[in-house]
Amino acid sequence: MTEAAISIQGLSKIYKGGKQALTDVTLDVPRGSMFGLLGPNGAGKSTLINILAGMVVKTAGKASIWGFDIDEHPRNAKASIGIVPQEILFDPFFTPFEMLEIYGGLYGVPKAKRQSMELLRKVHLEDKANAYARTLSGGMKRRLLVAKALVHNPPVLVLDEPTAGVDIQLRQQLWEYVRELNALGTTVVLTTHYLEEAEELCDRIAIINHGQVIANKPTHELLQMAQEKAVTVTVDRDLTEVPQAPCFERIALKGDRSIVVTYSKDKVNAGEVLAALQSAGLGIVDVSTHEADLEDIFLNLTREAA
């Protein structure tokens, strides 16, 4: 099927009191993709997710999940999505196994088809199946929320800051499992403040700021938007001042013998920068370059839209 996993057209939300959380948001999440939804705190990401979850009523626009309009077919839309929220909220008096069994029942999954223990195994909580959930650590509780979101085997999984408070090893285990789900066909939508995660995991990224979509591109195209590049050069003698050249955007002294030159890669190349330094009488001992990453682009885009 070529229809988008999530399709949003002209979505707006104005809260009581007049706060505009979303303004005419339009975007499609391709089926089978790993889609990043990024933005500063308060940008509108959680409002958008809560509208899809049926927890917030939109003011205007349309949204569908797996082809089901959230207004016309709310039950089918909710059955097509699993959401892992930012907040760790669940009944502390049930064991993880009991919790997954209860939620499986609420979603209408027949007892014989529930995979509660398998889900606990996948999120590395099999040994905690019969422990009270209130005794679990913060990272364990977050992984339990991932399992809870998957009890009805939804084709779309939304992860809202899933690795907040999770240590590095458990974070890697979680991403390994999410990659497995995606490889098997699950569409994954990820919000995260760890931009290196989004850069590594997502094949497409949308950035929201002040309730509006300011970018929506394949990850590799988004990374190509940055034209600035930096080169750090170690020279053969101590410097008290830095040379100047038309091809330098900026130049700064970093230690007695190291300078950092920033240039626009759509205008010049690193060879021209090095040639300009040599023309100034400097001998080059060592060179290293820095390409702009998603964090640089994110900061530039959100700064421009502020």
Structure described in brief:
This protein has ten helices and 14 strands.
Question: What does this protein look like?
Answer:
The chain has 306 residues and is α/β, with parallel strands linked by helices. It folds into two domains: 218 residues, Rossmann fold; 78 residues, 2-Layer Sandwich (Alpha-Beta Plaits), CATH 3.30.70.1560. The protein contains ten helices and 14 strands. A six-stranded mixed beta sheet has the order 6-7-8-3-9-10, with helices on both faces. The protein is elongated and about 80 Å long. The two termini are 38 Å apart. The mean pLDDT is 90. It comes from Sphingomonas vulcanisoli. GO terms for molecular function: ATP binding. This is ABC-2 type transport system ATP-binding protein.
Question: How do the strands and helices of this protein lay out in sequence?
Answer:
Elements: E1 6-14, E2 20-29, E3 34-38, H1 45-53, E4 60-65, E5 68-69, H2 74-79, E6 81-84, H3 96-106, H4 116-122, H5 138-149, E7 156-160, H6 168-183, E8 187-191, H7 195-201, E9 204-209, E10 212-218, H8 219-223, E11 228-235, E12 250-253, E13 258-264, H9 270-279, E14 284-291, H10 294-305
Parallel strand pairs: 3-8, 3-9, 6-7, 7-8
Antiparallel strand pairs: 1-2, 1-4, 4-5, 9-10, 11-13, 11-14, 12-13
List keywords for this structure.
306 residues, alpha/beta, Rossmann fold, Alpha-Beta Plaits, 2 domains, six-stranded mixed sheet, four-stranded antiparallel sheet, 31% helix, 28% strand
